Amino acid sequence: MKSRQAGKRKNIPHRDGFSLVEVMMVIMLVGILAGVAAPPMFNYLESNRMKTRTDRMVADLQYARAVSIASGQTLRFASTTNSYTLTNTVTGEELRNIQFNHGAELAMNQAADFFPWGMATTTVFDLSLHGMERTVTLLPTGMVEVDIP
């Protein structure tokens, strides 16, 4: 004799996957979420690139001061709109040569000298990247400040 439970199970259709409508709804929801999340993500990436570029430039300025003091020689930090170099003015040796990428640039060509006694020529570097700006100021004491306008 067959049980009633076994008979009822035979009447229920068996599903092996998702329907096309269900898959399309999931794809549509993922697309909407990606569209909402993309602009803040791109802003975050650009902001991070700007911070990284600024931090690298500040670190190289501090490095120039330290090497100038340690070596007892004058070093020159010279910039163009899309790069900067750090050169020993006595030997002509180039210690750093950094090319900007991802659209970062400086406002103008400038040069700053670091002296063996720790001082430097005062210079203001204006760094920009896709509308974001940072001002890196080299003080006469050789210290570096960053301002976010």
Q: How is the secondary structure organized here?
A:
Layout: H1 4-11, H2 20-71, E1 75-79, E2 83-88, E3 94-99, E4 105-106, E5 110-114, E6 123-129, E7 132-138, E8 144-147
Antiparallel strand pairs: 1-2, 1-5, 2-3, 4-6, 6-7, 7-8
Describe what you observe in this structure:
40% of the residues lie in helices and 28% in strands. The protein has one domain: minor pseudopilin epsh fold. It has helices spanning 4-11, 20-71; strands at residues 75-79, 83-88, 94-99, 105-106, 110-114, 123-129, 132-138, 144-147. It contains 2 helices and 8 strands. A hairpin with a 3-residue loop joins strand 1 and strand 2 (83-88). The chain has 149 residues and is α+β, with helices and mostly antiparallel strands. The longest helix is centred in the first third of the chain and has 52 residues, at 20-71. The protein has a 4-stranded antiparallel beta sheet with strand order 3-2-1-5. The protein has a 4-stranded antiparallel beta sheet with strand order 4-6-7-8, with helices on one face.
